[in-house]
Amino acid sequence: MIEVSVRHRRGAFALEAEFAAAGRVTALFGRSGSGKSTLVDVIAGLVRPDRGRIVVDGVVLLDTAARIRVPVHRRRIGYVFQEARLMPHLSVRQNLLFGRFFARHRSGGPSLDAVADLLGIAPLLERRPAGLSGGERQRVAIGRALLARPRLLLMDEPLSALDAARKAEILPYVAQLRDEARVPIVYVSHAVAEVARLADTVVVLDEGRVAACGPAAEVLRRAALFPGRETAETGALLSLRVAAHDDAFGLTHLDGAPGRLTVPRVPLPTGSSLRVRVRARDVLVAREAPRGLSARNVLPGTVVAVTPGEGAHARVEIACGGAVLVAEVTRLAAHELGLAPGLPVLAIVKSVAFDEETIGVLEI
Amino acid sequence: MATLASLLPGLAVAYLLARREFRGRALLDGLVHLPLILPPVVTGYLLLLAFGRRGWFGPALAEIGIVLSFRWTGAALACAVMGFPLMVRAMRLSFEAVDTKLEQAAGTLGAAPAAIFLVVTLPLALPGILAGAVLAFAKAMGEFGATITFVSNIPGETQTLPAAIYTLTQVPGGEAGALRLTLVSVALSMAALVASEWLARRAKARLRA
Question: In what order do the strands lie in the sheet with A152-156?
Fold first, then answer.
């Protein structure tokens, strides 16, 4: 459980944020300049706010009213920075054990071997940071933070300095961390794809204020919170279960609240749970069952809301079973189909719309 | 001796000047650099005024058994004062070159400020610290003006290398001795330079490999 309440003013910028989150992964989402990084620096103790209160798992780390301010090195908050910030004069092994040395009087936490295995850095232990790739460095930085036996892990856009391939290399490790390391994580990002894959709770920051805070599935449906290019990335976040594989056609059937979805084959055993993001732009809306359709997913539902967006777009929220899908359609289509709350419709999703970006990892 | 004695205060002052904002910072900065600008004889005379037998602090120090004037300790003090600005400059630059982000990272990993200094800042600044120490050493070896003014030129007690060479060149038949000492001086300076260069290069290589 994390409770944060901070007021901080620097020049023209004012940070006034307050949120509480109980999940394993809390995502701090916002554009650059929205105050995300300042907020995590305040949590870590690197920035001293004008006023604030920070409580992690019942331990008060900061309470300006009560004149409590735990210094950085006693907060036990692991911090993975945008740039790895490894110690250049130490080997990878020494870097990994850096925090463990200062945490040697506490017990618990994973061993060096376990962390090296989890992050795939066992072969790098004797190397120096200067000889590592960006992705490798970032994994070492994550391992280093974990080995310090932290009560909370802060990750400030740990993937932003990496290219797409390196991102794809690290994201699964972070997801595995979430499921195995049992350390709550605050994950800062401005990419909906990362947030959707990882977060239980999403906090959206805008100009230093909390614009939204809630369960990931709810927050990610609200497109207005994610302006610009990221709007198209928003949509429904579904928790599904692998029902069956279709080996002949290389497909997997997923069951869940909205009904059955058919997606390209997922390499998970039957019965495992996973998280799937259905992007609003991938969903079509039909009033009656189309014939001769290539799309494999046709889900009956009821229109809950129609929200005209900027320009030509409108967003249609459709309740399918216990889940809510979001479709981005043109305002013209919404008008001609007469879409309005209460109308029974069909939500249609192409199977190929599901890819590595939208099909999340195993959930435990 | 002078180099060793000034190493710790040199580190402290360099770190203060590089990292801390405080009142009197400019004053400290100026004070440290004064011996670099002042004629050495003036510095030596000021030292004599301060630490001489009848100086401002001389009697007090003599009470606790420290006599500086006309002793080798005084020569060491004069050399240290003259080498100090060179040492502090080099160290300060190397402290400023250490990324404070690394120090922050060390803090989040549980290192207290003193530990951060010892295991992060100091090792990373090491090349510059060594360079500073070598510069101060070279300066101490060559110190003439301040020493001769403060503690005179007593063979075996306060005589520095250049002072000895100067003495030898003033007496007939001293050229051979002067040449010998000149060679010693050149050899020592070369050795110091080579050593510092080697240490600095090794420290840098460790960061890269």
Answer: A68-69, A59-63, A51-56, A2-10, A13-21, A209-215, A201-206, A25-29, A185-189, A152-156, A77-80
Residues of the domain holding A242: 236-363
Query: pLDDT 10s per residue in chain A (364 long)?
Result: 889 999 998 888 889 999 998 878 899 988 888 888 899 999 999 999 999 999 998 899 999 998 989 998 999 999 999 888 999 989 999 999 998 898 888 887 788 888 888 888 899 999 989 889 888 899 899 999 989 889 899 999 888 877 777 777 777 778 777 777 678 899 998 888 888 888 889 999 888 888 888 888 888 887 777 766 667 677 888 888 899 999 999 899 999 888 888 988 888 888 888 888 888 888 999 988 888 888 888 999 999 989 887 778 888 999 988 888 989 889 898 889 899 999 999 999 988 888 777 776 555 4
Task: Tell me if A144 and B208 make a contact (CB, 8 A cut-off).
Answer: no
Domain holding A312: CATH number?
2.40.50.100
Q: How far apart are CA B160 and CA A92, in angstroms?
A: 48
What's the total number of domains in chain A?
Answer: 2
> Looking at the partner chain, which of A46, A103, A128 has a beta carbon nearest the beta carbon of B110?
A103
* Structural domain boundaries enclosing B57: 2-208
CB contact under 8 A, A102 and B120: no
Establish whether this prediction's ipTM goes over 0.85: no
List chain A residues with CB under 8 Å of B110: 73-74, 76, 99, 102-103, 148
- Please name every residue paired with A204 in a beta bridge, in sequence order, or none if there are none: A29, A212
